[in-house]
Amino acid sequence: MVKLTEQNRDQYAESVLKSLDSENIQQFRQLFFELHPQDQLDVYLSMSETQRKKIYEFLSPDEYAEIFEELELEDQKEFLQELNEHYAQDVISHMSTDDAADFLAEIHQTRAYAIIDGLEEEEAKDIKELLSYEEETAGSIMTKDFVNLTASSTIREVIDLLRHEGPDAETIYYLYVVNDNHELVGVASLRDLITAEPDSYVKDIMSTRVVSVKTGEDQEDVAALFKKYDFLAVPVITEQKKLVGIITVDDILDVMDEEASEDLDEFAASRGATDLKITPFNAAKKRAPWIILLMFFGMISANIIAQFEKTLEAVVLLAGFIPLIMGSAGNAGTQSLAVAVRSLALGTLEKKGLGKMILREFSTGILLGTICSVVLLIIIPFMHGSYFLAFIVGLSIFLSLSMATVIGTVVPLIINKLKLDPAIASGPFITTVNDIVGLMIYFTVATAMLTYL
Question: Is beta strand 174-178 parallel, antiparallel or unpaired with respect to 184-189?
Answer without folding.
Answer: antiparallel
